[in-house]
């Protein structure tokens, strides 16, 4: 049972043991924030992979188990079966592709008081991973991380959290914690829409259908007649799919004979080809195009036309009724990702304040962070279209201080009021992904609001500085380290990230 004072939440017991799920950037900075308070007896970070770094651990291998379509988290990413004979689960591979360079300049991307050193303005993934390893070393995190340890179930047990862990060697054990920070990332479970004809396309086996998560190198497109990038059905986020999609199209151009880019509403212009190490093979005489052909959203995939020989591949009809004359050989869906917490499947049952349902948003959270029903459970790093590292640092600094009893959290009624006002429509239905898709202005206001909350010890009435670059934004002092408000130069550079990237990388 939770206790509640008139206006502030009162935790039932002091929080001493904390579990952090995931050792990507968010899990690492969360561990640091918790340890920095000096108030917790034990902070354990569970990581299913062999190393820390999350998304930034590049793997040349791709996942072998992508479901297509993929539109419900608990169906495509089900909870683990927990019997002594269960084989250990294979961790999902990161969505990074070989050539990836960051989409944010590193001074904007880094944790607040831990700059990158001596790297290009838009570093490659190897440099980001190195940065994260150095961050973990500098803040003494290694001793707190348990590698090859997948959290497979989290259930409430007498006011605490029972965490079940499956090690890579198959050993299963349980441990109890007072609080849990979920930092499991959200670029692992692809969203692939149920488009008419897609199952037939996959079953036919003659067309390669994949999600951008599984793309690694452009050689897979060599000599392919047509490559389609499917339109984004969900709003794209700045980190990942929007950039990934354009990068994949651009990388496919020198290899595929023709690249079609299917874009909802025709709003995204075709990328301009840029010289790459592989561009020398572009040879118009061989029928290779140098620009992608932009088409509207796909209505359905068509079976091979009658009279075509066995092994034919089929084609595509778009929503404007046009049909591709040519056959398709590879289809890449860059359609985004689903939130998925298979280890919290018990929360999807009626009456339990569901968390993900269809994977589009996470429900019942106060300020995108605290699970209202029991704020000893927190989700760090959910907002989209943000610079994720600083955002998760602000969030975890707040959660750590709330759990340590240094900062106040409003009572359940107030948290619920905020949730209903900000996250639901008048009929009580979720407003969907748009409310967690921030963009610069909301991102700055949100981050600075969290910091104001930390500094004041209470959330207060206001929503925090508005992020317009006025004097409230740069309210800090250099000596405040990570406790500074976002600096004006940061806001400025963040707003120009796209132009800067084009200028520096030509991408
Ligand atoms: C293609 C791509 C490009 C991107 N480019 C940028 C960029 O340029 N700049 C930028 O700032 N961000 C970028 N991002 C966003 C990126 O996700 C964030 O930088 C960052 O990795 C988010 O950190 P995280 O810790 O929340 O998630 P992740 O990095 O995904 O880490 C989550 C960790 O949790 C672990 N985990 C998951 N489930 C369990 C479990 N049940 N038990 C134990 N461990 C578990 C995972 O193995 C993983 O290590 C990009 C993302 C993608 C996909």
UniProtKB/TrEMBL annotation:
The keyword Oxidoreductase applies. Residues 63-92 are annotated as: Disordered. Belongs to the FMO family. Residues 78-92 have a biased composition (Low complexity). This is Flavin-containing monooxygenase. InterPro entries: FAD/NAD-bd_sf, Flavin_mOase, Flavin_mOase-like, FMO-like. GO terms for molecular function: flavin adenine dinucleotide binding; N,N-dimethylaniline monooxygenase activity; NADP binding.
